[in-house]
Amino acid sequence: MDELYIGVSGINAIDNPGPGIGVARSLKEDPDLAVNIVGLAYDAMEPGIYMDWVVDKSFILPYPSGAGEAFVERLLFIKRNHGLDVVIPNLDAELPLYIKHAAMLADHGILTFLPSMEQFRLRGKDRLLDIASKISISLPCTKIVNSLDGLLQALKEVGLPAMVKGSFYKAYKCHTVAEAVSHYHDLVAEWGYPIIVQQVVTGDEMNIVGLGDGEGNSLGLVGIKKLSVTALGKIWTGVTVKNQKMLAAVAGFIREFKWRGPFELECMVNGEEVFLIEINPRFPAWSYFATGVGLNLPSRLVRRCLGLPVPPVPDYDAGKLFIRYTYELVTDMANFQKAVTRGEAP
Amino acid sequence: MHKLSRLAINEEGFVFNPTTGDSFQVSETGLVILGKLRDGHSDEAIAQALAEKYEVSLEDAQRDVADFRASLKNLNLI
Fold this sequence. Notes:
The complex is a heterodimer. Chain A is of the alpha+beta class.
């Protein structure tokens, strides 16, 4: 097989890690894929640029803003001058551009495997009630607000403490009205309307990473429980679980909405009740966990994308432990210089 | 018993619940009780077996079984 040039973003393996390194590492571990990882970075300090055992070559991209002409042109430049067969975008902010330009990129030989724009919008926090009701799981009492008066009314109905969330990003647990108002203004300033006010639910935080084929079938699911998290709420240790109700709900999600591409579904599980908290339309930062227990989802995505054989979905064992750790590397300053001045390294 | 049958238990008494991700450690006696509960034995039969195996009174063994069952209930396993 010819070498495949796979672009992977989110190679910022920092204390709030992007998913890219886990995705790239998974691709490297498929013995039947000859993969050349193309790191798609936004900053010369993204650690993945320097992790040459995972990322073969990196390029700095312009931020995915506006109509995205410069962004797309940069991808086409990489295609022409290096090679880029498939891109796996791993950051929320770049997904709308990739979805919007997917057909054009495909015409230039750059394939993606992403949800449609409608599916992408569907998982917005203001639409979760539609999803939860269709897949028979609970949603914490949720109010969508578009004004300060609406916020105050919602807090009365939901009660305190309450979660105050941006439509796509960020969530704050608020214990007082003043706290909620402060975060409301911050979220509106940063992300606009609507704002979501949600009941705080207790239970075990369980997540699922999955891959839908776009036709209602699952290309694989792994469920985990977070055992410890960082101050930012990012998983540090976890364990695989098989919560049948949660797995069935996720299978229903893929079937009902014909989800195409990777996703992470976040739940709170309290006894027999499963609450839907959030759906992220991309691989999570912990997706290597699935690879480690035998389900290499990034590899399956690339195979599906290129029309290569996708092996049957393997089962995984519950009770496998995930432990994140820190590590350091020392390299020559020349690599940093190349990334800054030429926009590519090494 | 359905929940008990799903538990993963090793020979050292480490118990993992694949549905919830919870884990706990049971004593040697607890391991015996848990195994017999999973096999569908009655509390009385388990107490009888414990009394014979560990040479304790039937009354003590019955108390151990009742205590263990209460612990399982607290863990929402029965």
